[in-house]
Each structure stands twice: as structure tokens, then as C-alpha cells.
Amino acid sequence: MKISSDTSKGTSTDRIEKQILLRAPRSRVWRAVSNADEFGKWFCVNFNGKQFVAGQPIQGKITYRGYEHLVMEVLVERIEPEHHLSFRWHPAAVDVTVDYSSEPTTLVEFKLSEVDSGTLLRVIESGFDQIPASRRAEAFRMNTGGWEEQMLNIEKYVAKG
């Protein structure tokens, strides 16, 4: 499946936008995005809870090879069933010797739209221009590639049923 980037707004250093057409009903894609256990299976993280709850943090151990020593923490911001889920996190927080808690977070949004052939999933991560300049470009680069890989992961995951 083709993953596309939204370039209609020109090149941006503040936001990453990816979209993919998933050949699955919106309810299935929504479950994969909004259920913490299912999300973790395709995103490679083992969350310590099963639910994403607006206004609450959730964390889990990353299971992706080479990053197993890291814990992912997100603050769930908004949930609109079968349409929108968003959370905040510290992008590319991969150095365990660094305390990222004083840095601004980026906003990650999952937007689902029903289309004739399935579900269009758009992922938008914004707020990179607020990240400290010393690591902004690397965080943007890492997450751009990361979202491309995650789009393939969710495609494979929802195809399994």
C-alpha cells in the first residue's frame, strides 16, 4: 500500500503528515488505534494498561529491537470514537541519560475517515519547531522514518483481522 505525505502545505519543519488507505472497516482501524493493547502490538510497545483515557498518561516498555531499554510515555489528549485520537509525547527520546521532562512535547493525531475502499488513516505529528534546536532536526528525521514504518505496521496488523 502506498504511504503518502501531505505536501500541499509545502515543506514544513514543524509537522509530519502521513496517510495510508487501509482495506479494513473504520471500526477495525479504530480498535487498532484506540485500544492500548492492540496499539502496542503494531507499534511495538507493551503498555501497562489496556485503555487510552483522555487526560491521563500511559506508559509501556518498547519492544522494538534495539530500543527495548526504553519506556514510552504518552499523555492522551483527545478521543473521539472512530474519528480521532491524539496524544502528546517527547519525540525521539532515546537517550536514557537525558531528562526530557522539561522539553515541550509534540502532538500526535490519528484521524480516520471512511472511504469506499476502506479507511483512510492520517497521522499528523506537530510541534517540532518548539523542540530544543540541538535535537530538533534529528527528532524530525527519526520520526519521519518512524511514521513511515508504523503505517506499514498498522496495515499488516489490521489485515490480519
Automatic annotation (TrEMBL):
Similarity field: Belongs to the AHA1 family.
Name this protein carries in UniProt: SRPBCC family protein
Domain called Activator of Hsp90 ATPase homologue 1/2-like C-terminal: residue spans: 23-158
Domain of life of the native organism: Bacteria
Pfam families: AHSA1
SUPFAM superfamilies, sorted: Bet v1-like
Taxonomic source organism: Paraburkholderia agricolaris
